[in-house]
Design goal:
single chain, alpha/beta, TIM Barrel, Sulfite Reductase Hemoprotein, domain 1, 2 domains, eight-stranded parallel sheet, five-stranded mixed sheet, 15 strands, 42% helix, elongated
């Protein structure tokens, strides 16, 4: 079990639940737009939100953002240690720095002293695209060992300052390298790990890359907080991250089992499933719902589901707790959802 740190009221590491992060893409000094996006990310499931701090105006905006944000905020600062210090003084909950561009010992010492005084953690965020040049040359490129060596160097600088409130991330756009580097970091350091496939691409392929990289590590018990990095609006990042955690039973919610359909299918499985998914997104308790198109696998899947709909010719069978409940001939989604409400009331306390 890794060390635990606190980002505002959110714990990372030490057995705490896996938290979800994302990052705004508004101009940080535009406080209203940035707050609006932070609020949207919070509603989408984010526990922590990062903002970029690239000038004095952005650092000053941190004060208002922290005061009104519904979640703890992280300042992403590159190149300029003075800006990082200013954001800490303005109330940020955590710093993210890149060892590839803040390297001077005196700068790191000032940051460590300031963060320690204000009781906030620092994430050392290693990216394959910004490894220190000498490390890059020594290892012949941005290999997993090069990324971990870059992290080790910066960890040592902070530890020499007596600073141990550290979070670590080792990110690459190459899924295999990200996984190998993170496994090596897990074996090498006692600090909680932030997982992510950086610059993974657009929603779709980028989501798949992130799910493979993040999911494979989480399955092995590696990782304490995650971010899915996608181009465009950050809102889909939060949903993708939540879906990854739900798929691994690390977040509560609906597990939707849907058959891929074939020529035997007699109901519109896709339409029914999409509507059920949309209308159950808000659910924060564990429930397994199966929507099956025919009698081949339908009854079998129904036995393992809390609520199941199995299509037939001109009708469907509804199952509750694995047992046949009734035959329905129309309003499939409405019947399923009303049955779900009754099931939840009867089982409240058992599925929390």
């Amino acid at each position: 079990m890794k060390n635990q740190v606190s980002i505002g009221n959110v714990k990372i590491g030490g057995g705490a639940p896996i938290s979800v992060q994302s990052m705004t893409n508004t101009k940080t000094e535009d406080v209203n737009s940035t707050l609006s996006q932070i609020e949207s990310l919070y509603k989408a499931g984010c526990d922590i939100v990062r903002v970029s701090v690239y000038n004095v105006e952005a650092a000053e905006a941190v004060k208002k953002l922290v005061d009104k944000s519904p979640v703890p905020l992280v300042a992403d600062v590159h190149f300029d240690a003075r800006l990082a210090i200013k954001t800490v003084e303005n109330g940020i909950h955590k710093l993210r720095i890149n060892p590839g561009n803040i390297q001077r010992k005196e700068d790191v010492a000032l940051l460590a002293d300031c963060a320690k005084m204000h009781g906030i953690p620092i994430r050392i965020g290693v990216n394959s695209g910004s490894i220190p040049e000498d490390v890059y040359r020594a290892f012949g490129g941005a290999s997993p060992k090069a990324m971990v060596e870059s992290a080790r160097r910066h960890i040592t600088l902070l530890e020499e300052c007596g600073f141990y409130d550290i979070v670590l991330s080792i990110k690459s756009s190459d899924v295999e390298n990200m996984v190998k580097a993170t496994r090596l970091a897990y074996d090498s350091f006692p600090y909680p790990l932030h997982l992510g496939v950086t610059e993974s691409g657009l929603p779709g392929r980028g989501t798949i890359k992130s799910a493979i990289g993040i999911g494979s590590l989480l399955l092995d018990g590696i990782g304490d907080t995650i971010r899915v990095s996608l181009a465009g609006s950050p809102i889909p990042e939060a949903k993708a991250a939540m879906d990854i955690l739900k798929a691994l039973n690390l977040r509560k919610g609906v597990e939707l089992i849907v058959c891929p359909t074939c020529g035997r299918t007699n109901i519109d499985v896709e339409k029914i499933a999409r509507e059920v998914e949309q209308k159950t997104e808000h659910i924060d308790y564990n429930v397994k719902i199966a929507i099956m198109g025919c009698v081949v696998n339908g009854p079998g899947e129904a036995k393992g589901a809390d609520i199941a709909l199995c299509g037939g010719k001109g009708s469907a069978a509804l199952y509750v707790d694995g047992k046949f409940s009734r035959k329905i001939e129309d309003n499939y989604v409405g019947e399923l959802l009303s049955t779900l409400d009754i099931w939840h009331k009867q089982n409240e306390g058992n599925n929390e």
